[in-house]
Write a structure and sequence with these properties.
It is a single chain. The chain is α+β, with helices and mostly antiparallel strands. The protein contains 16 helices and 22 strands. Strand 20 and strand 21 form a beta hairpin. The radius of gyration is 26 Å and the shape is globular. 22% of the residues are buried. The C terminus is likely disordered.
Length: 464
């Protein structure tokens, strides 16, 4: 460990710029270490690895990828596309990276993005006048006053045994959901009776979705450009005033329902699922922790798994993003802990033995299935699943390694440049699946999959 001290007195009014040695997004880290001249050597030296080779060494690359979470800092841009808003990680230069932690720091540091040149620096400023020889330190858990959370956040640098903390995570109180409801600024609808329609009724559809306009061809549906006369609303924009809608147009059908964030946003889904499975959650949802509110419980569970020799691979996902953006798979505890400093995330047990599908000329790959469901009524509960489903596949054989290989561990390929989008019709998939898994007839798999997921009763009278 290097300790940096002042070579000359510093005034608390001083401000210094620190360069960044490496700026990247996680999905490109390995490629940059292997391909950018001199980067691997510099990172190995900065992290005190003994490496002097001219060519990338796979073991050293793995070491850097493992160790870098003790050095990483992060920021994210507030403007741009969803991809451009994904958090950026960076490692400061040799000076900045060696500034040590102190609970009583002498300096503070923060990233600074200089827009004219589209470049980031770190600003350092003393918190007090420093004399010659005074140590330069900063608080690695700056802004965190809760002693337990500070201990958790400092774990990458200060080892601690957290196994005595209970890993169980009960469902949050009603206040948790009420705060989300207030933040969303929704009003709840008044109860309505489910409408019974003649079989030959022609439904007027108002939609903002070009896919619906292009593909809805059934003769019982006609489009209208007047929202107020529509029987069905298919909207991108979120409906907020359900109360008014239920009073003025009680039988209009929607592609949304009140408080749908309870099942469409990952932290809420994990919490609500505990109504079915208790503190460990529903059986169909792998064990999940909210990194913002349940970090100590996660660390305890991780360390207990480690003690028992159980698999400890986890997947970190943003609360409210899709398409695999800012999603991370790892068995590195430091990696998970540091994710708390970027966007709000949950961490979910990664399935180390998923059901695989044998793709010709590729091998056994991961796949996922998408169903469309229709919520017709809450009381009594009427929920329908469309038995035509959509399939997505990985492009590389599954194995429990190289977790930054997107085409091995993820299935969403239609947004990935240069990736093959494998499509199989459900009618073709079923006999292939049953041939590969003869002990599991698809009709039984489908019934179990759907019935396990729908026990809670969201509110509304809607098209899902």
């Amino acid at each position: 460990m290097n300790v940096f001290s002042c070579d000359f007195p510093l005034s608390s009014a001083s401000v210094f710029l620190i360069d960044h040695a490496w700026t990247y997004r996680v999905e490109s880290a390995r490629q940059q270490l292997e391909q950018v001249p001199g980067l691997l050597q510099r990172m190995a030296s900065l992290m005190h690895f003994d490496f002097h080779g001219e060519y990338p060494d796979e073991d050293v690359v793995e070491q850097v990828l493992e160790e870098m979470w003790k050095y990483n800092q992060t920021y994210q841009l507030s403007q741009g596309t969803a991809e451009e808003k994904v958090p950026v990680w960076y490692i400061m230069d040799e000076f900045g990276s060696q500034v040590q932690h102190s609970d009583e720091p002498t300096c503070s540091m923060a990233p600074f993005f200089y827009m004219p040149e589209q470049i980031a620096y770190t600003i350092l400023w003393p918190l007090q006048d420093l004399a010659n020889g005074d140590e330069v330190t900063r608080d690695y858990a700056y802004g965190e006053s809760n002693p337990l959370i500070r201990k958790c956040r400092l774990l990458p640098w200060e080892l601690a045994d957290m196994r005595a903390i209970s890993p169980f995570t009960p469902e949050p109180s009603d206040l948790y959901y009420q705060s989300i409801f207030q933040e969303n600024k929704e009003t709840l609808p008044r109860p309505t009776e489910a409408q019974v329609y003649p079989k030959d009724k022609i439904f007027k559809v108002y939609t903002e979705m070009r896919q619906v306009l292009a593909n809805l061809k059934h003769p019982q549906f006609v489009f209208t450009d007047k929202e107020e006369e529509a029987d069905i609303l298919m909207l991108y924009s979120h409906i907020k005033d359900y109360r008014k809608l239920s009073e003025e147009r009680p039988h209009v059908l929607l592609n949304q329902f009140p408080c749908e964030t309870m099942v469409t946003v990952k932290d809420c889904l994990a919490s609500v699922a505990r109504r079915v499975g208790g503190t460990e959650g529903a059986k169909w949802l792998p064990r999940t922790f909210n990194l913002k509110t349940e970090l100590p419980q996660f660390i305890s569970h991780y360390q207990q798994n480690q003690e028992r020799g159980q698999d400890n691979h986890w997947i970190c996902k943003p609360w409210n993003l899709a398409r695999g953006l800012d999603t991370h798979i790892t068995n590195n505890l430091n990696y998970v802990i540091r994710q708390r400093e970027s966007t709000p995330k949950v961490v979910c047990k990664y399935l180390e033995k998923p059901v695989l599908f044998e793709r010709q000329e590729v091998g056994p790959v991961k796949f996922d299935i998408r169903y469309i469901v229709l919520l017709r009524s809450v009381q009594p509960l009427q929920l329908y699943a469309y038995n035509v489903f959509w399939l997505r596949f990985s492009n590389r054989p599954f194995s429990l390694d190289h977790f930054d290989d997107y085409q091995k561990h993820f299935t969403v390929m239609n947004y990935t440049e240069g990736a093959q989008l494998k499509q199989v019709h459900y009618d073709d998939f079923i006999p292939q699946f049953e041939k590969q898994y003869p002990e599991y007839p698809w009709k039984d798999v489908q019934v179990v999959s759907i019935s396990q997921h729908y026990h809670s009763e969201p509110k509304g009278n809607c098209i899902g």
